[in-house]
Write a structure and sequence with these properties.
alpha+beta; six-stranded antiparallel β-sheet; four-stranded mixed β-sheet; globular
Length: 338
């Protein structure tokens, strides 16, 4: 593996580890709004009305809805690693993904309910706010959180698959970044929380810092940077994000239907789980949309968090037998005048 991330406790120890048909964002799919106790589903839209958001309970993540579609997954530019290839078409079913990474406040609600264990990396003094992404959680802890969400909301919450994650991150982009990647080291700080000059000032040993300054030495509160064109924030930078899939050395034989790629008969026992997106401790190359990383499911770090997904029902097909017969053809009316 070639991507760098701030690694396991003790903090600051650094470790080396290792789209052609994308559909636009969709309005929220119709769903049963029967709420769990103490919950009431709320729905909003982006300012331009293109993106639908919902939240099932006041203490659960806000979600962005997608109708699904087809896209080319992997390194289409040729600047990545062998494990980002071969590029392959993937079809994605309707789903929703967290508008933001899971925050400390949202995760703490699960801890308070007794369903989650405490994060294993304490935040620094200026990273303690409830809107910062939770870090220091293993894949197993992330799975415990989504299990709690399922009980809390009665909905099929889960970790996103790797294919879903990249689909939402790309938002139809086929390049390495969703911004002007020709000047990546100077413009990244406008769009993502990476290893910048403010982080280098705190950690002088991090010599690979990029030249711009995003003013966040470590994690940034979620939503501090603009969303991608599909209304999802921090898919590149801030923290790495666990997904459901087992690690494979490349995409040979990867599923093409968007499902998680697991080891046969060993859903809970693969040696490593994938994480995506890059984080505050990484230079811009690790924030590329096709970049991948993986860790044993029990690992955790001060640069590793997650976001959640939920399955959405496909629109029901129309029963042809129930459709009235078409009326007899009639002569066409003249076109209306403008």
């Amino acid at each position: 593996m070639t991507c760098l991330r701030i690694a396991l406790i003790p903090a600051f120890l650094l470790t080396l580890i290792g789209a052609a048909h994308a559909a636009p964002a969709a309005p929220p799919a119709a769903a049963d709004d029967t709420a769990a106790a103490g919950c009431s589903t709320t729905r909003t839209r982006s300012a331009d009305r293109r993106i639908g958001y919902f939240r099932h309970c006041p203490d659960t993540p806000e979600m962005a809805s997608f109708r699904g579609g087809r896209y080319a997954m992997g390194d289409a530019i040729g600047s990545g690693q062998p494990y980002e290839r071969p590029i392959h078409d993937v079809t994605i079913a309707p789903f929703a993904i967290g508008r933001y990474e899971v925050t400390r406040g949202e995760y703490q609600a699960c801890v308070a309910a007794g369903a989650c264990s405490e994060a294993q990396v304490p935040p620094l003094a200026d990273d303690t706010g409830g809107r910062h992404p939770v870090v220091g959680v293993s894949w197993h802890q992330a799975k415990a959180y989504v299990a709690w969400l399922k009980v809390r909301t009665g909905r099929p919450y889960r970790l996103p698959t790797e294919a879903e994650w990249e689909y939402a991150a790309r938002a139809s982009a086929t390049a390495n970044f969703t911004w002007n990647w020709g000047q990546v080291d100077t413009v990244t700080c406008q769009y993502a929380n990476a290893l910048d000059q403010s982080a280098k000032a705190r950690f002088p040993e991090l010599y690979w810092a990029i030249t711009c300054n995003d003013s966040f030495p470590q994690t940034a509160p979620v939503g501090s940077f603009p969303p991608n064109t599909w209304g999802v924030h921090d898919m590149q930078g801030n923290v790495w994000e666990w997904v459901e899939d087992c690690w494979h050395p490349d995409y040979s034989g990867a599923p093409t239907d968007g499902r998680a790629w697991l080891e046969p008969g060993a859903e809970g026992t693969c040696s490593k789980r994938v994480n995506r997106g890059g984080g505050w401790g990484n230079g811009s190359s690790s924030l590329r949309l096709s970049n991948r990383d993986a860790d044993p499911a029990g690992n955790y770090s001060d640069g590793l968090g997650f976001r959640v997904a939920v399955s959405l029902a496909r629109p029901k097909p129309v029963d042809a037998a129930a459709v009235p017969a078409a009326p007899a053809a009639v002569p066409a009316a003249p076109a209306a005048s403008p």
